[in-house]
Amino acid sequence: MTGLHDVAKLSGVSKSTVSRVINNESGVKASTKEKVQKAIDACGYIANQVARDLQSQKTNLIGVIVPRMYSNATAKGLDGLSSIIDQAGKYVLLANSQQNHAQEIEYIKRFNQKRVEGILLYATHLDSALVDAIKQSKAPVVLIGQDGSLFNIPSVIYDDLSVGFSAGQRLFGAGASNIGFIGVNSQDIAVDQCRFEGLRQALQHTKQISPLFHSRGAFSIESGYQQTKQLLIDWPQLDGLFCATDRIAIGAMKAISESGKVPGKEIKVLGVGNDELSQVSTPSLSTFSYAFDLTGEKSANMLLDLIENKQSSVSKLVMSFEIIDRESCYLSENKTS
Known about the structure:
Protein name: Transcriptional regulator, LacI family
GO molecular function: DNA-binding transcription factor activity; transcription cis-regulatory region binding
Organism: Psychromonas ingrahamii (strain DSM 17664 / CCUG 51855 / 37)
CATH architecture of the largest domain: 3-Layer(aba) Sandwich
Helix content: 40-55%
Pfam family, one: LacI
Keywords: DNA-binding, Transcription, Transcription regulation
């Protein structure tokens, strides 16, 4: 097997010089580096990455924990963060918690065992057990989607309260006055609680009314469909519906259509996320768009700064959103007869 001494002999330098070139250390002439690299190529030498990691105390591994793989937010976020991590010469270890809170904590522990340099966590909740796991992690952790700044955890979050407030204004502006909300698990502070609270504040502010209901289910089209079927029976006066995600909203519109009512006309519907399906649904879905890829990039950069000790204090970055107007919730003045 080709070893360091073979490369040194062929290039005419010492083994220590070869080692410095392989580990990209400073103080080696460009001409010497070129000579060593040619010898490496000629010998077919492959460096022992494990040994190098142990020596340098670096693994160049970044752990990423996501709640589900089929999500539009997850896919675009991974694209964004992967590009930054790749540019930094590091590699992603990906784990899917399948929206299991215990698994998020378990993966934090496993990643520390794998000696990752940092962890990006797309969290679906934030409780004391998760906070403790993050605090005990030797590798720095950046939260995405949940605000951990109160616990001194660096976070990149979406402006969910403002999205909820804007949803209330849009639904009211489109002529709805009996408005309900379909959310997700109550432990998801951002997607469920913040979006609903924004809606509640908007309705109080504009018309001194409260939402008809706050229903909860899963992040799926089927969940939105099944919930809405029952909600239409329980709340026949419903004329405006804000859903925590686009997929929930698409399922809701299917149930509304099957009930004999027309989504977008008799019942205004709003989602969040600008999922690809929202453009091709019938009617097309009005929604809010987050720059998920940019969020991934910002989160990765924040983590890399923590790894390099460039960040001295805990930070929180709030990502803005864009309003996407489509057929399911046109404002009254934009409607055509």
